[in-house]
């Protein structure tokens, strides 16, 4: 149902229900939550890659067959201790979404919880909440307009139409689009680049960006100044020189 593979400091988390388009059943939601909490706490993990099994679906969202039997309350009543989207959002390590296929409704919300999105050419995104007759509860109605603009967000959410990977990249929703066979290698290369930075620095910078993004621009600038002033006081000249040499060496090798 959920696979977790370690490759050095990178953890690959795979939603593995391809026969059900990796739909988020109650069991899979809980398993993903538990895995993200464990990886967040694991000092050996610097970066997480989240993807789906197969090439058809990242995830089709909530398991509608299950909800048809249990009712929508089974998902809506899920508290913060078992909300998988919240667990991805609050993970202190960078989370790279490797979007291998369709990301629909709750699956779209899960993708938006990631920090970086790499999409296969097979990827497509759709917000079908209105067509199913429900409202989003994992952040999509607020995040999407902030990412791609309110007019485009309304177009997607009020039609339920699919957005192809290339258009998603043009609209700034995903970082890049690659052939299906290059998806995981590309995500792993990004993870490797990130993991070459100390995990404490990654976590601090991710939190700084996220906190400021939720504020007004002016408040965000004040937050940056306050956080960076305290942090930078602890950086010794010796550390700066060591990192400077590392950055120069890396620049010559790229």
CA gyration radius, whole angstroms = 19 Å
Strand content: 15-25%
Shape descriptor: globular
Helix content: 40-55%
Order of helices and strands: EEHEEHHHEEHEEHHHEHEHHHH
CATH topology description of the largest domain: 2-enoyl-CoA Hydratase, Chain A, domain 1
- So, the CATH homologous superfamily of the largest domain? 2-enoyl-CoA Hydratase, Chain A, domain 1
End-to-end Cα distance, whole Å, is 39 Å
Spatial ordering of strands, largest sheet: 1-2-3-5-7-10
Number of E strands: 10
| Total of DSSP H or I helical runs spanning 4+ residues | 13
Derived from helix and strand composition plus strand pairing, the structural class reads alpha/beta
Please give the largest β-sheet: 6 strands, mixed
Counted up, domains total: 2
Do you know the CATH architecture of the largest domain? Alpha-Beta Complex
Low-confidence stretches: none
CATH structural class of the largest domain:
Alpha Beta
Mean pLDDT: 91
Q: What can you see in these coordinates?
A:
This protein is of the alpha/beta class and 254 residues long. The protein has 2 domains: 194 residues, Alpha-Beta Complex (2-enoyl-CoA Hydratase, Chain A, domain 1), CATH 3.90.226; 55 residues. Helices cover 52% and strands 17% of the residues. It is built from 13 helices and 10 strands. A 6-stranded mixed beta sheet has the order 1-2-3-5-7-10, sandwiched between helices. Helix 1 links the parallel strand 2 and strand 3. Helix 1 runs parallel beside helix 4, helix 7 packs across helix 8 and helix 11 runs antiparallel to helix 12. The longest helix is centred in the C-terminal third of the chain and has 17 residues. It starts with a strand and ends with a helix.
